[in-house]
Prior knowledge:
25% of the residues lie in helices and 40% in strands. By secondary structure, the chain is α+β, with helices and mostly antiparallel strands. It has a single domain (3-131), classed as Thiol Ester Dehydrase, Chain A (Roll), CATH 3.10.129.10. The chain has a 6-stranded antiparallel β-sheet. The longest helix has 16 residues, at 54-69.
Amino acid sequence: MAPSDIEEKGREFFAADSFARENGLEFVAVSPGRATVSMQVADRHRNSHGTVHGGALFTLADVAFALASNSHGIDAAAINAHITYMTAAKDGVLTAEAEEFALNPKLASYTVTITDEEGRKIAIFQGMVYRRTPRP
């Protein structure tokens, strides 16, 4: 698939994700096995401590993970995901960058790093997908 086709399909995939849009996430980029998504922190993203809710961070990482894992043109669905919160975030723009770690016909693994505007690591997410590879 040509890079422009991957970008177009990625934008379509993101546009179909109502939950991502409702939570204020923004598509940044997609390429084979990689994706970047951002989120401008708003009041709706904060927990009772005034920091970004863990669920908002998980959603940000999960959307980047979904874009990256589906970037090969084969349907992929998460079968496992784990997140580690490194430090609290309060405001600004957060960016999730997903990178493919391993790929085979049925399974693929990804690491997503969430950073703030200063480049501080906010969270590290790891996930695995099952790929519905067409049979010959």
